[in-house]
């Protein structure tokens, strides 16, 4: 999908890094362990992953998360300055009740933030999160779609997300 959007000129050429929470040997999914406000996961990105991708030219780092991955991205925003922007698609925050407090008291400032939800999605979390983030940045976009909590909804937004974060 990203290749097609790039080749058609809808996206700028970029390097995309996808991080899976599934252990390749055991096939166990560590999503809940990694995504629920895990400081060690932040350190993994800062100390291992990001140094490995610094070799790419014009490295602009944005973190896009969906569902609980969105919780992870918001937690990263509160904990590290390693990224330039964040996309929070279908925000779910209940597994980390301290998230909004950590964002409020963080050094998070003037990052680009894209938040979206669908009518049949996680819309109850958007307004509170928006209020917290609005106090920290003026570069925020909230999008409400007709979609559900699924990849069809998220994939339909990828062009807008990447272009918003990249400009």
Question: How are the SSEs placed, and which strands pair?
Answer:
Layout: H1 2-7, H2 31-35, H3 39-53, E1 62-66, H4 68-79, E2 85-89, H5 99-104, E3 112-120, H6 126-134, E4 140-148, H7 151-155, H8 158-166
Parallel strand pairs: 1-2, 2-3, 3-4
Oligomer: single chain
CATH-assigned fold name of the domain at 61-167? Rossmann fold
For the largest beta-sheet, the strand count, sense and barrel status come to: 4 strands, parallel
Strand content: 15-25%
- CATH C-level class of the domain at 61-167: Alpha Beta
Report helical residue fraction: 40-55%
Question: Can you summarize this structure?
Answer:
Strands 1-2-3-4 form a four-stranded parallel β-sheet, sandwiched between helices. It has 167 residues and is of the alpha/beta class.
Please give a structural write-up.
By secondary structure, the chain is α/β, with parallel strands linked by helices. The protein has a domain at 61-167: Alpha/Beta hydrolase fold, catalytic domain (Rossmann fold). Helix content is 40%, strand content 17%. It has 8 helices and 4 strands; from the N terminus they run H-H-H-E-H-E-H-E-H-E-H-H. It has helices spanning 2-7, 31-35, 39-53, 68-79, 99-104, 126-134, 151-155, 158-166; strands at residues 62-66, 85-89, 112-120, 140-148. A 4-stranded parallel β-sheet has the order 1-2-3-4, with helices on both faces. Helix 5 (99-104) links the parallel strand 2 and strand 3. It is globular and about 40 Å long. The mean pLDDT is 86.
């Amino acid at each position: 999908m990203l290749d097609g959007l790039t080749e058609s000129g809808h996206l700028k050429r970029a390097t995309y890094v996808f991080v899976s929470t599934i252990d390749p040997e055991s096939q166990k999914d560590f999503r809940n362990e990694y995504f629920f406000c895990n400081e060690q996961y932040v350190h993994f990105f800062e100390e291992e992953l990001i140094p490995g991708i610094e070799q790419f030219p014009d490295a602009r780092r944005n973190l896009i998360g969906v569902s609980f991955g969105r919780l992870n991205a918001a937690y990263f925003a509160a904990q590290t300055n390693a990224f330039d922007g964040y996309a929070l698609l279908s925000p779910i925050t209940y597994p980390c009740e301290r998230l909004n407090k950590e964002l409020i008291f963080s050094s998070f400032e003037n990052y680009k933030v894209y938040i979206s939800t669908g009518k049949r999605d996680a819309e109850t979390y958007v307004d509170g999160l928006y209020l917290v983030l609005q106090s920290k940045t003026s570069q925020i976009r909230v999008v409400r779609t007709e979609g559900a909590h699924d990849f069809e909804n998220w994939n339909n937004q990828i062009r807008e997300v990447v272009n918003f974060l990249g400009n």
